[in-house]
Design brief:
It comes from Falsiroseomonas algicola. The chain has 423 residues and is an alpha+beta fold. Among the domains are: 132 residues, Beta-Lactamase; 155 residues, Histidine kinase-like ATPase, C-terminal domain (Heat Shock Protein 90), CATH 3.30.565. 55% of the residues lie in helices and 18% in strands. It is built from eight helices and eleven strands. The strands form three sheets. The chain has a five-stranded mixed β-sheet with strand order 6-8-9-11-10. Strand 10 and strand 11 form a beta hairpin. The longest helix is centred in the middle third of the chain and has 94 residues. The protein starts with 10 loop residues before the first helix and ends with a strand.
């Protein structure tokens, strides 16, 4: 059996279990010898009392017949009491008068400790003396001491057992719970990663468009530079400008690719200071083509000097991407009425938290389904248009960072609010 590790258990619980185990162990240690001693004493007392009462009844009859001479009938009294004496045990019998003088003695002297039972002798209804029986309790005390030693041993074993078993079971339960929570976190991380990759898949067309622009510019600049070289003398300034254009476009393409690579990377980093402005910029870059295709304009009203929040940049960017993308999907592919399609981003600081809001006027969310909006696999999109995991995963991401994700919807408008602690 492995050593018991109580480090993960709350000290108060350990103290309570230890105290209960100690109380039960002390009870076992005291109860075993005490129960035997009490039972043995009661049994001995009952036996002595029964025999003494029988002897006292015979002596009462004897005294009634010889009221004046019984005090001098030592031999006859001994003969009458002899049948009641237990010669196998160390016990002594005495018949005494009212003054306490012994009239007759029988048996062997009892060794200490002793137990004495006294029963009165009557003469015409008046107490004339008494029969006293004294018995040694050495054997009872010896067995009591033996059982006390056994009780101490049982108490020690009971304490170890009663303390270690509950603590071990509790520690094992906590280990199982920790493993279950770790597996749950791993599954949540895998779902978040799957959702993130699904978002990247949806944004692939836009990313292709973003990459196509710099690649086209690179191709044109390289072709013009090549034609200039073929025509003859090269104008150094013109060639340098075209080569610089190629470098700029290559860097732009590299930035897009790096952003996609970082966004698609598996999370798991610890919480740290994060710039909400940078998160919003990254989300807008990823959604540029989708916003253009849906004819949605993002109105960013975030102050440039917003304080840092405590969280993780890439998961937060995933949340913002999901909220803005949902607004685009709510507006639909075609702007039939020609009205402006706005998604407004705002931020406000209150106490030790920052709240980022994403506001759209795409028709709102029906009150009947609003309470289920963060449920896993719940979606109002057509089949093939969504997994129903985006908002649920976003809710979990924000919650893991110590924040909250909430929604309000009325009058055709919807406002999602992401509240995070300041760094």
């Amino acid at each position: 059996m492995t050593a018991l590790d109580t480090g993960r258990i709350e000290p108060r619980i350990v103290r309570v279990i230890t105290a209960l185990a100690l109380a039960v162990s002390v009870l076992i240690m005291v109860a075993l010898p005490a129960a035997y001693f009490v039972a043995a004493r009661v049994a001995v007392t009952a036996s002595l009392t029964a025999r003494a009462e029988s002897a006292a009844a015979i002596m009462t009859e004897f005294v009634t017949r010889n009221p004046d001479h019984w005090l001098f009938e030592n031999a006859r009294i001994r003969g009458r009491l002899a049948p009641f004496v237990d010669t196998a045990d160390r016990e002594s019998w005495r018949v005494v008068d009212l003054a306490g003088n012994a009239t007759a003695l029988l048996g062997t002297p009892a060794r200490l400790p002793t137990l004495t039972v006294s029963v009165p002798i009557h003469d015409a209804g008046v107490v004339a003396g008494r029969v006293e029986v004294t018995r040694s309790m050495q054997e009872v005390v010896g067995w009591t001491s033996f059982l006390a030693v056994i009780g101490i041993a049982l108490a020690g074993g009971s304490f170890i057992l009663l303390r270690s078993v509950p603590l071990r079971l509790l520690a094992e339960s906590m280990d199982r719970l920790a493993r279950a929570e770790a597996m749950e976190r791993e599954r949540a991380a895998q779902l978040a990663q799957a959702s993130k990759l699904a978002q990247l898949g949806e944004l692939a067309t836009g990313m292709a468009h973003e990459l196509n622009q710099p690649l086209t510019a690179i191709t044109l600049a390289a072709q013009n530079a090549l034609k200039q070289v073929e025509r003859g003398p090269v104008n150094q300034a013109t060639l340098a400008a075209r080569l610089d254009r190629i470098v700029q476009m290559a860097r732009r393409a590299s930035t897009v690719i790096d952003h996609m690579r970082i966004f698609g990377r598996m999370g798991g980093e610890a919480n740290g200071p994060v710039s909400i402005n940078a998160v919003v910029r990254g989300a807008r870059d990823l959604l540029a083509f989708k916003l253009e295709r849906h004819q949605v304009q993002v109105e960013d009203t975030l102050p440039p000097d917003l304080p840092m929040v405590l969280g993780q940049a890439i998961p937060l960017e995933q949340v913002v991407v999901n909220l803005i993308a949902n607004a685009c999907d709510a507006y639909g592919d075609v702007n039939e009425d020609g009205k402006p399609r706005l998604v407004t981003l705002a931020a406000a600081v209150a106490a030790d938290r920052l709240a980022l809001t994403v506001h759209d006027c795409a028709g709102g969310i029906p009150p009947a389904i609003l309470p289920r909006i963060f449920d896993p696999f719940f979606t109002t999109k057509p089949v093939g248009k969504g997994t129903g995991l985006g908002l649920s995963i976003s809710y979990g991401i924000v919650n893991d960072m110590g924040g909250t994700l909430s929604v309000q919807s009325e009058g055709g408008t919807t406002i999602f609010s992401v509240s995070l602690p300041l760094a």
